[in-house]
Design goal:
Elements: E1 34-39, H1 43-49, E2 58-59, E3 74-78, H2 81-92, E4 96-101, E5 113-117, E6 122-126, H3 130-140, H4 144-161, E7 162-172, H5 177-188, E8 193-200, E9 216-223, E10 234-235, H6 239-242, E11 246-247, E12 253-258, E13 265-269, E14 276-277, E15 281-282, H7 304-314, E16 320-323, H8 330-337, E17 341-346, H9 349-360, E18 368-372, H10 374-386, H11 396-410, E19 413-414, E20 423-425, E21 428-432, H12 441-453, E22 458-463, H13 471-480, E23 484-489, H14 497-502, E24 508-509, E25 512-518, E26 524-533, H15 542-545, E27 555-561, E28 569-570, E29 573-576, E30 591-592, E31 597-607, E32 612-621
Parallel strand pairs: 1-28, 3-17, 3-18, 4-7, 4-16, 8-15, 16-17, 21-22, 22-23
Antiparallel strand pairs: 1-2, 1-18, 5-6, 7-9, 8-9, 10-14, 11-12, 12-13, 19-20, 20-21, 23-24, 25-26, 26-30, 27-29, 27-31, 31-32
Helix pairs in contact: 2-4, 4-5, 7-8
C-alpha cells in the first residue's frame, strides 16, 4: 500500500484511503424521484400546476418555489438515505438550513417493535424487515470500521446539502460519540464545531459495578460558517432563583444586584427577564412517556420537546429542515407545527407509514408528497449488477442475466425459446416483469395465451409494479382458459447483495381487496370495503394470525382518490387507526363531483405490515 501523507490530526480507519494513498470518494448517485402519493392537496390545485402526465407515477422535477406560497410541498422519501441524499444534491445543494440525524449507534441494535392490531389494539411483535437487517449488517458488519465508513459517507453529503446558515445536529451516545466527533472534525473542520449538548434524562438507576449509571445522550452540533442561524432559547426560571426576588409595592418581583458591565447597583425585575438561558446541559426534557399520547411505539423515538428546542434555536419559520434517519417522523411533525418546510427520509416502510399517519393527525398540515427512487433505483441496480465490465448499459446479455438471477432467487429454472415465459418452477410456468415498467394486463394476457397453447395449467407472474386493478380481471380471465394465475411481488430485498446471497428474499402473492362503489345521490360516489385478502397466510407468524379476528384487522389505513388520472395517487379521503382510536370505518364519506362523466376511483389499503394494495374502479357518475 502506498504511503499516506498525514498532515493534520484525523481519524483514520480501514477503507478510508485507496491503495494508492488517495482519499476514497463518497459514492454519489443522482437518480430521479418518483412521486407516489400526494397528501392534503386537491386535484384541481395539482392540475393547475401540472404540465404533462408521465404515467403510473410522476417524476419529481424540482420546479416548485422555496415557499409554501410559491408551491413548495414537503417531502417524505422511502429509500436508502445515501442514494436519496445524493439524488437531492442537484436541487438542494446549499439549501437546507437545519439537519438533524439520529443514526443507529448501538452495535446490537434491534429495530423490531410492538404494533397494535385491529379494533382490539392487541399488540404483536413486529420483526425488522430484511432491508433493515441489511442496513444493520452494512453498518456493523466489519465492526467499527464499517460504522465509521457509513457515517463518513453520509456526513460528507450532508455538508454539501447545508446552506451557508445551516446547522447539523447529530444525536449519539457514549458508544460512538468519540468516533462521530472525529469524523465531524474531519468533514466540517474543527472550526465548524458549535456545541456538545448533553441531554440528561431521568430514569430508574440501578447500581452498576464499576461505572456511574449512564443517563445522558450526546448531541453534537456543527455549522457551515459563523453565519449559522442562532436564536437564544430560554426555559422557566429555577425555583431557587425566583426565591431571591422580593415583591415591590406594585406586586412586581424584583431584586437589587450589581451591574457587571457598568458597575454600581441595578434593579432587576423578574417579568423583564425572558427566562433561564438554555445551556449545553438539557436536564428539563424527559424521554417519551410510555403511556403518553405522544408515544408511537417506535424504538428510537425521542420527545417532541427536544426537537422543538433544536428547531427553534437553529431555524426560522419557512426555513428548510431535514432528517435523513426520520424513523417515526418526530422531526418532521415538530417542523410542521412550527411552520418550517421539511424533507424526511427513512429506509423502513413501516416508519414511512407511521410518519404519514402522524402528519395527517396534525391540524392544518401543509400538503406533502411521498416519494421514492422506484424504477430508477432498480435501473441503477440492474446496470451496476448486470452490465459488462466496461460499464455499458444493459444489453440483451444483461437482461438474460437479470432474468436468470430472479429465477434463481425464486427457485425456478430458465426456459429458452419462449416469448413470454422465462422459467419453470415445479409445474408452474414463470413470467418476470421488467425492472422499469409495471406489469400490464396485456403482458399477463400474452403469457396466459402462451401457457394455454403449451397446455400448461399454472402461471406465476413476478413483478415490481403492477397496472392498477388487474387482479380480479386477470385471475378470472386466466381461469376461463384453464390456467391458474398467481401474481407475486418482487421484493426490494433482491437488490441487497447480502440478503440475496443468504436467501433472505421471499416473494409474496399480491394481496387484493374488494370494494363496492355506490352513488347515494346525484353526482356523488361512496366506497365501501367488502373484503381484504392476504394470500398465503401460513407465511404470517402464528402470533399475528391468532389475533386476527376478521379480514379488516389486517388493515391499518385506507384512502381514496376520487379522480385517478393514472399518475400520482391524490388522497381525497382517508381513514386510519391510531393508538387511541382503534376502530376503522369501512365506508367512506360521500364525495361530490362537479359534473357528470367517466371517472376512475382508486382505493389504496395499507396493511399492518406496511404494504400497500390498490384497486381501480371505473364508474359513470350521473
Amino acid at each position: 500500500m502506498a504511503k499516506i501523507e498525514i498532515t493534520k490530526t484525523e481519524l483514520v480507519w480501514p477503507g478510508k484511503y485507496n491503495d494508492d494513498g488517495t482519499l476514497k470518494e463518497v459514492p454519489r448517485v443522482n437518480l430521479p424521484f418518483q412521486v407516489i402519493e400526494t397528501v392534503n392537496e386537491s386535484r384541481a390545485t395539482r392540475e393547475a400546476q401540472k404540465t404533462t402526465s408521465l404515467g403510473l407515477f410522476d417524476v419529481y422535477e424540482g420546479k416548485e418555489g422555496d415557499t409554501f406560497d410559491a408551491g413548495w410541498k414537503n417531502k417524505l422519501i422511502w429509500g436508502d438515505n445515501l442514494l436519496v441524499m445524493g439524488s437531492l444534491l442537484e436541487k438542494f445543494a446549499g439549501k437546507i438550513d437545519l439537519i438533524y440525524i439520529d443514526p443507529p449507534f448501538a452495535t446490537g441494535a434491534d429495530f423490531s417493535f410492538t404494533a397494535p392490531i385491529g379494533d382490539s389494539g392487541d399488540e404483536v411483535f413486529k420483526e425488522q424487515s430484511v432491508i433493515e437487517e441489511k442496513a444493520y449488517r452494512d453498518t456493523w458488519g466489519n465492526g467499527t470500521a464499517s460504522y465509521v465508513t457509513m457515517m463518513n459517507d453520509r456526513l460528507r453529503i450532508i455538508r454539501d446539502l447545508l446552506s451557508n446558515r445551516g446547522t447539523l445536529y447529530v444525536h449519539c451516545d457514549w458508544r460512538v460519540s468519540h468516533l462521530i466527533r472525529g469524523i465531524l472534525d474531519d468533514v466540517f473542520g474543527v472550526s465548524g464545531f458549535v456545541n456538545e449538548v448533553a441531554w440528561h434524562y431521568f430514569g430508574f438507576k440501578r447500581k452498576t459495578a464499576k461505572n456511574f449509571p449512564r443517563k445522558h445522550d450526546t448531541i453534537l452540533v456543527y455549522a457551515i460558517s459563523d453565519d449559522h442561524t442562532w436564536n437564544v432559547q430560554y426555559k422557566p426560571h429555577r425555583t431557587e432563583y425566583v426565591a431571591r426576588f422580593k415583591t415591590d409595592k406594585d406586586g412586581r418581583l424584583y431584586r437589587d444586584d450589581v451591574n457587571p458591565t457598568a458597575g454600581g447597583a441595578r434593579t432587576i425585575y423578574l417579568d423583564e427577564v425572558p427566562g433561564d438561558i438554555v445551556d449545553s446541559v438539557w436536564d428539563d426534557i424527559p424521554p417519551v412517556n410510555p403511556m403518553g399520547s405522544e408515544r408511537w411505539d417506535y424504538p428510537t423515538q425521542k420527545p417532541e420537546a427536544l426537537f422543538e428546542r433544536i428547531i427553534k434555536a437553529s431555524s426560522n419559520p419557512g426555513d428548510l429542515v431535514a432528517d435523513f434517519f426520520c424513523g417515526s417522523g418526530t422531526t418532521l411533525a415538530v417542523a410542521e407545527k412550527l411552520g418550517r418546510r421539511w424533507i424526511g427520509c427513512d429506509l423502513g416502510r413501516w416508519g414511512i407509514h407511521v410518519t404519514r399517519k402522524r402528519l395527517l393527525g396534525i391540524k392544518n398540515s401543509k400538503p406533502f408528497e411521498v416519494l421514492n427512487l422506484g424504477k430508477y433505483e432498480r435501473q441503477y441496480w440492474q446496470n451496476v449488477t448486470f452490465s459488462d465490465k466496461h460499464g455499458k448499459s444493459v444489453n440483451e446479455q444483461a437482461l438474460y442475466e437479470y432474468l436468470a438471477f430472479i429465477l434463481k432467487l425464486y427457485g425456478a429454472q430458465p426456459l429458452a425459446g419462449m416469448e413470454q415465459l422465462h422459467g419453470k418452477r415445479g409445474k408452474a410456468m414463470v413470467h418476470i416483469g421488467a425492472v422499469d415498467a409495471p406489469v400490464t394486463i396485456a403482458e399477463i394476457d400474452a403469457a396466459v395465451e402462451e401457457c394455454a397453447k403449451l397446455k400448461q395449467s399454472e402461471l406465476h407472474v413476478l413483478g415490481w409494479e403492477w397496472e392498477m386493478g388487474l387482479y380480479d380481471l386477470m385471475a378470472e380471465a386466466a381461469k376461463k382458459r384453464g390456467v391458474k394465475l398467481l401474481l407475486l411481488q418482487i421484493p426490494r430485498e433482491v437488490m441487497e447483495q447480502q440478503a440475496a446471497a443468504k436467501g433472505d428474499v421471499r416473494f409474496f402473492e399480491l394481496a387484493y381487496l374488494e370494494a363496492e362503489i355506490t352513488q347515494p345521490k346525484k353526482l356523488t360516489a361512496q366506497v365501501a370495503l367488502k373484503d381484504f385478502v392476504i394470500p398465503n397466510t401460513e407465511l404470517i407468524p402464528e402470533e399475528v394470525r391468532s389475533k386476527i379476528k376478521k379480514w379488516s384487522d389486517f388493515i391499518d389505513y385506507w384512502a381514496v382518490d376520487w379522480d385517478f388520472r393514472n399518475d400520482t395517487f391524490m388522497q381525497g379521503w382517508v381513514a386510519y387507526r391510531t393508538r387511541k382510536e382503534r376502530s376503522l370505518p369501512l365506508i367512506s364519506d360521500q364525495h361530490e363531483y362537479d359534473k357528470q362523466g367517466s371517472y376512475r376511483i382508486l382505493v389504496k389499503v395499507i396493511d399492518i405490515f406496511g404494504n400497500d394494495t390498490t384497486q381501480a374502479f371505473d364508474v359513470e357518475v350521473r
